């Protein structure tokens, strides 16, 4: 368990660099991420390469025992490059060029820009691939930030036509797969196909889904190009990219396949304020710590994208600048977030940024240091974590590396699938339904029961799990079907599971499609509801309300919950269960508790705001409430903290 | 009273066609609408015409005694046609081309596209004009759907300049009519005139109104072109177009003049959810049946556009896919809607669609059959209606054709005028005011009083009416003035009546302009209010609140209602009355009841959610409430249903 | 104290002109503004100049003793001019050309359009500069109306590059000032710089701020060009421009430097309805009189832009047409507004417009006359004011000119700075914070304490003030710092004061930057809050809530208010105080009352809706409440009105 920080030597006079490195050391920071926005400093004029500043900073870090995560600077191509290759710019859905003047001004599909990236990454990798300070490389920065996955420029159209031709072979196959006969949308050749924007009404959902897939694949290819260069010149270093919160526009599992570690950038307060997933009540209650499951959900999600390895590349250290409102974190929140990350398997937590910049777009974004180089609150909390990690290691008899490799996998898995996300959000039927939010609410309920959850891709092995939740696995591939049939634990499939074919059609046997053998039922009709109507539901497992999505199902399976018309809502027997509707949090928890019991797992209703996570023999307890809460896990002894947890408090326990 | 269905042979394997026709027959369906989106199947390549599939399906329908309504396929031109004539595409108000990829990708003003339509419609009419299965033709599909009446492309500009030159003759006449001196907006020639979009602030309202009229006239011309061809090649068949709900962007009366029947597409749940006319309370109360006056209002409106003949071309049979939320209808709702349509004079109710398509944009739109070809709920309700029609006919001693020709006109008329709608909505003064909504609320109040209402155009004969309501007849033409002067019944003119000249100016004598002789009063000033301020109103006829629009009037007429400053709100004597403000539903009902009484009509305050409609000697009673209601009309005996109507219940009575 | 009116001879037949002039005279009107939209009447064809109508109208006004304010017609260039110079058109932020068809269709930066303006203004000035009726010239009309300050056309880009080159000299200086290193945004030459629109995410705030400044400077230059011509040909006449309410997009102080008088266009009801600054409760309470501080705030603001001289060029006389809802004013409101203006130093109140036009965009905008030439309510109220002015003059023993020159400056100053406004709104941190609104709420609180306030520019002399409020003076220039150090009165600096350098960077010593010597404190961190969280604040001076913006401050100064964590909120001693947060109205009033006391000023908590203003020895009392209120100022005797003020009532007192 290590700490890191994001740093920009190019923003500060050289005279500060040594001082900063010493200060990082004092706090206990071991990793520094640099370089990812520095292209114009490296190459201020075409082919005029300024390496000296970077040489010197790397040497300083090395001299102070700091390991460097070096970023490729491709998220911020300089103006001269853009002027030479104007076709590298993206276009938004309205057809407007997205110009220079901020960052991420390129489309992934641009071959001209890929060539420019190949060149600069090669130059960097050749120069620093074997530098002793360089422990890792970050490719680009936050793929897709500012809504940059879908682009509607000419270059994207070319790429899309090629992608479709490769996928379908013949235009007849595409017409059939998309059902283009529907509104005389048939094409005679791939060259007739347009991008699915600026149509009179919505484009064919199959068309939209394939365009999303194509754009996602452009990201994969763009990343692969950099990975290949870095592997060649800097073998043995961890390759990583920094993902974002609540962001699903490309397939992170696919990108993750080519990297060594998954990392993400966690801003609990900004996302609480910004995201429509949260209620006004939640936004108020968790204003200064973030929602209790925000960090956890993404830690578990991205650990699943990183083949089990997780870093936090950017951890919010204070108020940020980009949310609609930017409050200060509670005292202790930075420490809480850091421990939460460790408890989910993070090897490294790196704060963004070292020092608040007094200029540019993010001048109101806090750092560990203030703009005047004094320590901000978060610096002290980071130092406290360093001390506590030592205490924990001593208590467990483990050194730092052993701590880092404590197992983090659980017995409960929730399947998260980017393709399912795109499919279902293209036609949500009720504006109140979104795939991501439903996954999140399922995860929240599991976690409120004290369960440690893995979030897994649809091609993951299921062998180690006792309970598996498929929130809404739109398309069930043959391979997944095989693994589900072989699964020995308890399975819960949620609404919309198996409701689409691979090319966005309704299966011949209706939903749940290929799962009907495992779950003998038919979804006959869907009742997609506005918030103002929440019908009652009740049965052997509890009572509550239906929300947003409610399937009318025909089945002979035993029903654990029914709606007020007597229709099945939650049904199943033995080890396979199906939930046909979104249901309220209370009933969801009650149902999941029953399923956990069936799976031989013990669960507990945690106090509001409290969360628990196990990692190896360590139990972490977190209090996200804004008042003191008492909690002690069973069969464990206290190592750090108190049974009475203060607001934003953490306690750490060792299993007996 | 017949049932029909919309069907797409091109979506299904040939092997299904006979089976489907037999199934339709079994249910009792007599009409099938086909063809309207099939251009790319008919003509997959330019000039390569595939008629065989259509030949065969027509023969199958004919063999099974099904009558066909054949749609011209001009709402979905194929990609190759668009690529040949890119200027046929519309531009939206922001100047963006509205491209291929869904439907309705053309502008009505395009002469190139009209020529393409002339060709394909001629080919179809020549081939099928005399086919024994073809009973009727539908031109295109849902003119204006997806906001396609106003288009801002170059071809529209050309058409507009020609239209203006024809209307005004000289540019001086136009400048004067528009008042262009106002902001130095004078033009020197028709070629200087631009479309009224992308101006710095709002364009001249006279300019906007004429553009709306021109665009509406383009629809009329576009439809006329198809009508002429069909009349030539398929004489004797009913020509029809399918209009939409709450849609006013072209003059349906003008289009209707060229057709034999008016039809419309009724989706009570989608419109309830989508339209801002309804309150949150209404959206909740009527979630599963739609608002009690939604269907009725449009039935009466479109019967008035169809010279007394009305069809329902598309009747919602289950959840749809396009509203923000798409709930399932109540049990019985499809039957309720079908009978409501018959009670307003519909000869035919055709369900959209026969079978839910598993692909394309509308794959979540229910049909009578599910995607797996099993019957959905609505199929049973349709079959029930067929049986009930038989019972009703027997009870009345009428055969099917006699039932269809039962008289449907009433004694109360509400005047609906598209030109008035455009005029008043261009400058509503209060965002809370809209012409259509005010008409709807007047209609609702009349209907809550048990009255059967005709909705008539401004050039209709008034001879048969006892009570005439002019909701807000902005411009009073000389011809209308003559008919109003001659009218023998009771007249109520609402706020904004007579407030504009033909070219969008204030009349010299102020509102009500030419009506001042009939209604001696002057509208001195207008108080246009937000929702939060609803001043009190009271007088001899009741008390309540003013809403949104409140005129300050000088008159010597007796006042039945006054505002709290003593200003006249409802005034008149003898047979002519003027209402200067929008008023709340309770007071509106009380006032209309008084007027009905003055007109010698008896009215009754119906229970909440209950509606009644008379057609000939039959009285229909509908319960839109979600609970049981007791109601029996006076002087009638029960033929079908119960005095205690269940939720979504219908009872049918015969006058003694 | 004079009355005027806006008139459009070109809208009416010549036969009306004499009649209108006589009617104005009868009411007591002395000034007439004309001409500002008449270009197409003056010059219907290029170089074909029609002066006769204007010659004749000027002669008629002169013959009737009416003084003319002659408008240059540059806000409405005719179509032929636009067609000749299409590059004169602005582009909006989305890159769309803002075309002909309404008004203000030009960008200030267009040299072609400036040349056209130079020509037409010269022609007018040559012809009428010495006409005896012409007392004043108005340049153009409402600079910036309809969001026309920022334009993104090619001509604007050219102007911006020149402006930047002049400001920074070298591109290196610009890169440093903007902090372009931040995201590789460095430029190699001024020709690489683009406009800050259509970037992928927000552009550099320094970039945005400079663009705003550049656009503001274009307005200054545009106005200067006309001023120079008018000074040359019409020396001795007052030059004036008419500003707008709640409009800050250009620096009115800079434009005002070149003119003789500041005027503005006041529409109290339209702005109440339209502006998000007001709560729903305020919108309801003040529906028919406007918010009590709307007029006052702008009168004081613009008097400060006019070197102490203020006119009202357009005063709302009845319902307008452009707000979301357009109610009628209360009886007496027009009189109230007129007296409020006089009480703040207005020399002239001119009503917009003389007669309601029956055509064009504003046909629903009331005038003193109705479209049928009858007097509307406001005409009587204007006549009443004329009579009351006479009474007041007699009571004070002053003639009309002496009344006009009564002193209007106060002892309390609030500093309003356009550059600060732009700076802080570019990055508000909390969407609930806006510079203008915070200034307004401070002004409101001062005025609710009965204080008469001057609103001054940042370069104003401070010598005459006892209390000075800096709401949020983002950048403290060296010159201002000198004056603040020398200031002898009580100073209150609000949150964000001194928080930015001149080029939008954080000062090295953090906020309050250069003011730290006067106010020894450091703003360590900012808590930017949503509306739902309003932490408690309390201390020696009262208790209440924090809103939107809350600074965490380190200081040794005594604290008058602290937050619930004990952090300083309001601090200071002697004569210098700092408020680090926005606070609620009650606590703001309590705090300002303490500061007024410290400054030796007496204040009083006025009844809700009541406002008081002193001018010389006259005290004006206004009742904006919708019910009767009792109020008498101390030590004064009643001249006009009553101690019990009716709704919208005014009383006028003479100090003893
Ligand atoms: Zn980001
Ligand atoms: Zn439609
Ligand atoms: Zn304006």
From TrEMBL, chains A, B, C:
It catalyses: Hydrolysis of terminal non-reducing beta-D-galactose residues in beta-D-galactosides. Residues 6-390 form the Glycoside hydrolase family 42 N-terminal domain. Residues 411-601 form the Beta-galactosidase trimerisation domain. Gene3D superfamilies: 3.40.50.880, Glycosidases (3.20.20.80), Golgi alpha-mannosidase II (2.60.40.1180). Keywords: Glycosidase, Hydrolase, Metal-binding, Zinc. The keyword Hydrolase applies. The keyword Transferase does not apply. Pfam families: Glyco_hydro_42, Glyco_hydro_42M. Its EC number is 3.2.1.23. Belongs to the glycosyl hydrolase 42 family. This is Beta-galactosidase. It comes from Marinomonas primoryensis.
